[in-house]
Amino acid sequence: MKTLLLHAILWISFFIVIFGPDTAFAQWETDRRLTFNDSISFTSENNAWCVAANGDFVHVVWCDERDRRDIAEVYYKRSTDGGTTWESDNRLTYDASISYPYHIAIAASGPNVHVVWSDSRDGGYPNSEIYYKRSTDNGVSWTSDIRLTNAPYGSFSPCISTSGSSVHVVWTDDRDGNYEIYYKHSTDEGVTWEGDQRLTNSAVLSMGPSIGVFGANVHVVWYEYQSIEEIFYKRSTDNGLSWFPDTCLTNDPAWSEFPSISVSGPVIHIAWSDTRAGCYEIYYKRSTNGGGTWTSDRRITFLPSDSYFPSLCTSGTLVHLTWIDQRDGPMNDEVYYTRSTDGGLNWNPDTRLTWDSCSSRNASIAASGSAVHVVWSDNLDSRYSNWEIYYKRNPTGNLGVEQETPSRFFHLPRNHSLTVFPNPFYSFATIPGHEKESFALYDITGRQVRICSGDRIGKDLSPGVYFVSSQGHKYSPLQIIKLK
Question: Which among 67, 261, 317, 407 counts the fewest CB atoms within 10 Å?
Fold first, then answer.
């Protein structure tokens, strides 16, 4: 086994030379059209995500008018091989009212897939409510619709995040006569739900929430509007039971709006659209201590054109960011992307992901294993009248470089048949589908340090780089683990 590990280490060295970070970063595949119908198919306009990924499973949701014009339903599609092939469309809602285009969101954790959306079946506009449904088998079957809100006027723009068995939802609500941010959660994978919690109490409009969760730490951002708009933040450290006061993250005489949040342990990343430079640009900031303090605002885009609707996701120290950009023409929205390999300190040059003369809008991003996945709405196939759902991936875009002293190391490509989740991790991880099997854990020198089960990989080990291999398959590929 030592010999095998040394060969793996030598292979890593070869990987550095041939497939360095710039090469992997650029390997985006061609666009894939996911929907084929003569009606509008649209991803969400709010700060939520319409794509989620876990292992080799990639899940996409959108609103679709194929069943009746001006009446949208929630549709779902999945890939079980990391985005290589896709199964048929799956209609999730069946009601005679609008499933409120285009407010929909998805999250996934292990085999559990969670979807929320706004729905006006309970009295029509403006009385939209938040609905939810879930799958416990990676999208094969789904529960009935569950109504999460029951209030007058509108509940809309939901965003969802999950950690372990806890599921957290935020949305915009005007039941109090003013747009406020509301929240609720489930501690049993969405079977039962706690009551609604009002998170904001402001005389101005609070809108567009985005939520990120790590363990019992729940983080929410939104924007508030009076004469100008600012980005606000709120956190809970006890799984949403109690909350710290609101924190204003921006303070400039411009419009700061459409925030997106992503969380990796104690590090919180936020991106938003901001007009302080004269047009909408993408700005970013982070906290490295769980939301206690924040860095200064950082401008990501530098162009005399609008850049807006950012979408963030993280994987350890890798931070992925996509947005809509008009640098290629005022009526030509395109999807752009960048990433940071050092937790948001430095950012790669912008990468243009779409190349067409029509509009590409409402992009969402997710990462899993070695791949990065992006979905968006595009009217390429019938200008202004027939929006379709498109997908693009970089199969090596989530391979990263992390700094160590005095040298650097690379993550090995994830072995699709042996996925450690989460990876990297802080306490312990699991190998989904192999929880009852035994695995050998080795350090970077090839020394076996532990025999562990697939449901408790890495517990109580010192931070470092480790390899995990199946005892029953001596020559199975090894996978790198980074503990912090």
Answer: 407
